[in-house]
Amino acid sequence: MPGVLAGPFHLPLFFDFTATFLFALTGAIAGVKKRYDLVGISVLALVTGLGGALLRDGLFLQQGPPAVFTDGRYLVFVLGGTAAGVAFARHAHRLHILFALADALALGAYGVVGTQKALAAALPVLPSALIGVVNAVGGSVLRDVLVREVPLLFRPGEFYAVAALAGCTSFVALSVGVRLPSSLAAVVAIGVAFAARILSVTLGWRTGALTSDEPWQEPPRR
Questions:
Q1: Predicted structure pTM score
Q2: Which of 173, 203, 207, 218 is the most exposed place for a label (fewest CB within 10 A)?
Q3: What is the 3-state secondary structure (H, E, C) of the chain?
Q4: Position 209 in a domain
Q5: What confidence tens digit (pLDDT) does each residue in 21-79 have?
C-alpha cells in the first residue's frame, strides 16, 4: 500500500526517546512501590520503556532487528528513566500532575510513532492504527503482568487505551484521509491523545464494567 502518507515522514527521534524515558520512569516507580531490589526495578523500567516498541517490531512489523537494539541510545534513556524513577519515587505523590502530563504526552507520541511505522511498512490503515495502540500501551501491559496485577488496559477506569486509539485514528484520518502533511497530522494526533488522557484524569471520565455482578468463579471440586 505504497504512498498512503502525504510525503515522507519520520517523527523526530526526540519524541521516541522522550517517550522511552518517561515510560521507563513509570516502570521504575512501580518497582520501588513494590519494594523490589535494583535488578527488579531495572527490569520493570526496561520492559515498560521498550515493551511496546519490541512488540511492534518483533511481532507485527518484523523488518529485521528491533530499532531499540540497533540504536543504543534507547537503552541510555531507559537507564536515565530508571535513575529518575528511583530518585523521585518517594515524591511521586507530590509530582502526580507532572507525571500524568508526561505520561499522556508519551502515550500520544508512541502511538503516532507506531502508526507511522506500520503505514510506512505498507500495512492497511486499520491494522496500522491498532499497531500504534500496541506501541503505546504494550509496555504498561507487560509491566502489570510482571508484577501480577490485572493490566490497566483491561480495568474499568480513566481513558488510557481509548486515548491512544483516539490519537492513532486521528493520525490515520488526517494523514491518509485528509492528506494533511504527515508532520502536521502527527502534532494534531499527539494533541488529541494528550487531551483525551488529561481530560479523563481531570474531569473523571471513566470506562465502566458492562455488568455490576461479581466475577464468576468456578465452584470448588469435590
A1: 0.82
A2: 218
A3: CCCCCCCCCCCCHHHHHHHHHHHHHHHHHHHHHCCCCHHHHHHHHHHHHHHHHHHHHHHHHCCCCCHHHHCCHHHHHHHHHHHHHHHHHHHCCCCHHHHHHHHHHHHHHHHHHHHHHHHHCCCCHHHHHHHHHHHHHHHHHHHHHHCCCCCHHHCCCECCHHHHHHHHHHHHHHHHHCCCCHHHHHHHHHHHHHHHHHHHHHHCCECCCCCCCCCCCCCCCC
A4: no
A5: 988 988 898 898 889 999 999 999 999 999 999 999 999 998 888 888 899 999 999 99
